[in-house]
Amino acid sequence: MADVTASDGALRRFLHGLPGVDPVGLEGRAAALGTRSIKTTAKAYAIDLAISMIDLTTLEGADTPGKVRALCAKALNPDPTDRTTPRTAAICVYPDMVATAAEAVRGSDVKVASVATAFPAGRAALPVKLADTKDAVAAGADEVDMVIDRGAFLAGRYLKVFEEIKAVKAACRREDGTAARLKVIFETGELSTYDNIRRASWLGMLAGADFIKTSTGKVAVNATPANTLLMLEAVRDFHALTGVQVGVKPAGGIRTTKDALKFLVLVNETVGEEWLTNEWFRFGASSLLNDLLMQRQKLSTGRYSGPDYVTVD
Amino acid sequence: MASLFEYAPAPESRAVVDIAPSYGLFIDGEFREASDGRVFKTVSPSTEEVLSEVAQATEADVDAAVKAARKAFETWSALPGSERAKYLFRIARIIQERSRELAVLETLDNGKPIKETRDADLPLVAAHFFYYAGWADKLEHAGFGPNPRPLGVAGQVIPWNFPLLMLAWKIAPALAAGNTVVLKPAETTPLSALFFADICRQAGLPKGVVNILTGDGSTGAALVAHEGIAKVAFTGSTAVGKAIARTVAGTDKKLTLELGGKGANIVFDDAPIDQAVEGIVHGIFFNQGQVCCAGSRLLVQESIQDELLDALKRRMSTLRVGDPLDKNTDVGAINSAEQLARITELADSGTAEGAERWAPACELPSSGYWFAPTLFTNVTQAHRIAREEIFGPVLSVLTFRTPAEAVAKANNSQYGLSAGIWTEKGSRMLAVASKLRAGVVWANTFNKFDPTSPFGGYKESGFGREGGRHGLEAYLDV
Predict the structure, then answer these.
(1) Are residues B250 and B270 in the same domain?
(2) Interface of A with B in 47-76 (CB under 8 A)
(3) 3-state secondary structure of B11
(4) Domain that holds residue B37
(5) How many CB pairs under 8 A join A and B?
(6) Is B258 tagged catalytic?
(7) What pLDDT, on a 0 to 100 scale, did the predictor assign at position B4?
(8) Which positions ≥6 away from A61 have C-beta within 8 Å?
(9) Structural domain tally of chain B?
(10) Could you list the residue range(s) of the whole structural domain that residue A38 is in?
(11) Interface contact B6-A39, CB threshold 8 A
(12) H runs (alpha helix) in B156-272
């Protein structure tokens, strides 16, 4: 596929040659899959799977080491009343909190993910973005969540976006030859059209994204069933064409168990079980976890507990 | 197919519907036995379980029902439109209130998935009554002159594929226009019409305005031949439609026919592929393909044939076939042993004539009437499966090279009911749509229904329109 990224013109022709997206049909399909009825054993499986897929996130200006450590404790032990509860996939923090988080989860399988590249707007010069990325990786980040330059994308400068992702990917490399996994955030709410989301997905995958991610959680429209379905179709088609598997991470706005199960149904019926693992599918969320825990308690005890029976962090 | 994420059974409860062991004919506001006491059984096609026994109406019963409807016509047609509207609004609301019960009932008697009766049939049934209720007091503004008059008694014969929805398509405009009706539901799906009779009573509809006669083809024949009716409306097979046209010929009865189809779903190389695949699947596997406007012929541009068929097969492999009452079932049972035999015979002819047959691996239940979603490639215009209506979950795939060839092949059919166009190019969409001889042309969608939109066919798909303002014309003296 090297030829399609050889020049701005070639890349544009390739991206604009992808099949169009009919919005009514896409949203209709996502809504139809949303009516699946997930009960009993299937629900128990899906709740545990969803918990294990969460990137437990705190991205506030007010974040402190104390807040981050509390969140790490939650990731390691989501439900103190039930030690069989799976851990979350990762903790997601700003770069300056990576060292604190890495220290707190050391020795566990919980990963540390860091947003980088002048998150959330991405409005900084490339050297600044690369320094931001390297700083996070050096502090111990296992995963980097970068934002694309939406301005460049919307202006049609696809090659600039492509080169920037490639450069960030290179900055994820560690001295020992390993690398942090790269999640590429499109900010789908700013790209606005489904055709743009499909093009951005292919652009990100061509540039080496390990994950494609919907959004930052900082704009009005974040993850939706329809834009996640579209990105799942893109990773499915990319895998069929190149053999390379890419993960998907919807982020922002997924707050309830019911929502999470709908996303898992999308995964199950679009890309199948190869993606039904936290290696290839994640939820960027914070309040979702407590709702999953309450539903999990309901399934195991038969009674609803309530928000005072899960921890607030 | 074992999967990590196996959906546990999610059956809708049968307890919401109470089916009596037997039902009579609904004539003049009362249920009564057939004049000769004969009955027949109705079974659940997914299990072959007997659901109930219903009366087999005789000629004498037809006569009694038509007489009751004629008597009721005198007062019903004289009511102000706004009064008739009140009854129709009331019926629509009761249907909404009882929609879960009716959805389960329809799924039991017809075999279609609960997902469809719950999300498609029942909402459309209620919407149809609401829509025509709105017309009842506005008939003078419908474009048929200053004082359009009703016709009299409408004799209506409906099919088994959408039992309650076809009843709504027939009864709602007839009543709104001031007619009274005698309706015969299909032999294999009589129950929802009998529940509708109960809804008429619940709504306080005057006696004789709606009469329901259950029975076989002989009942339908007696009804359309009865001299007391002014209008015949039939939805069903082209063969029966032709017989009805011969019966009605030479009389002053008005006639509308909604007959068979062999809809072409045309996919151009610039189509939104993922959505086109969904549209193809919905076009042919919705209601097990037992839809007169099904997209049973897929016309795909040769340049994207392989890509599209790969995607289609992958998607078909995710269809969940099985217990219609399970909320996660996508494809339910075939309505009857007779229909299953017809589908099987036509599908076998496809193999015999040289087309290539494919179906996803799927386990079918051991009892009941089942047919796996099936795809035929290498189909030519000369094959029976490209020309004859299969009325089942069987898709025939043909290819074309240019838009002109697509139009020529799509129109090369004795039928002309529906067609679909898939392209992201608006100018192509409009140009092709204007050349297709089909009553409904869907663009980048398929099998979308709305009470405001007229529906009907060209050629052997019938004549007359149902739905929308156009649907009133069939029930008015214009």
Answers:
(1) no
(2) 49
(3) strand
(4) 14-259+461-477
(5) 74
(6) yes
(7) 81
(8) none
(9) 2
(10) 2-305
(11) no
(12) 163-176, 191-202, 217-225, 238-248
